[in-house]
Design brief:
This protein has 151 residues and is an alpha/beta fold. It has helices at 2-22, 59-63, 65-71, 91-101, 114-118; strands spanning 29-32, 37-39, 49-54, 81-87, 106-110, 126-130, 136-140.
């Protein structure tokens, strides 16, 4: 019983630290399907950034494409950088998904899943919104239905 209480107490003490790590914006550089390298730091502080973590095998990722496209129509979205971070697929498989389902965000390849780990992505899809100050203001398994990027 004492061991169970100790384990529970330890879990409670570490939970805030784990939660805080998911709110931290970490810079990354990833190669896009277009062959160019993209760094998050090039865009931080210039406006909102939306990052959608996805994979070609993920059926929910296919289902959420209309929601991702709708997010691009929200107030102020014309000044937002929309990135789609593919988690672990080969470039050819990711490209096939992007073309077949008309994936709307700039597709980047997280081949070694390091960026996904940095952002504590445990399952996909995950959408993260970073504000103009570089703070994560939204994190969810689906994109928000409405979001005002103009604020």
């Amino acid at each position: 019983m004492k061991k169970m209480i100790a384990a529970f107490a330890l879990a409670l003490l570490t939970a805030p630290a784990m939660a805080a790590s998911t709110d931290t914006v970490k810079d990354f550089s990833l190669k896009g399907l277009d062959g160019k390298k993209y760094s998050l730091s090039d865009s931080l502080g210039k406006g909102y950034i939306v990052i959608n973590f996805w994979a070609a095998w993920c059926s929910t990722c296919k289902e959420e494409i209309p929601e991702l496209a709708e997010l691009m129509k929200q107030p102020g979205a014309d000044k937002v950088l929309f990135l789609g971070v593919n988690v672990g697929d080969k470039a050819s498989k990711a490209a096939k998904f992007v073309n077949k389902y008309e994936y709307p965000y700039k597709p980047l390849l997280d081949s070694d899943k390091s960026v996904s780990k940095d952002y504590a992505v445990m399952g996909i899809p995950v959408t993260v919104i970073i504000d103009k100050k570089g703070k994560i203001v939204f994190r969810g398994s689906r994109p928000p239905k409405k979001f005002d990027f103009g604020k």
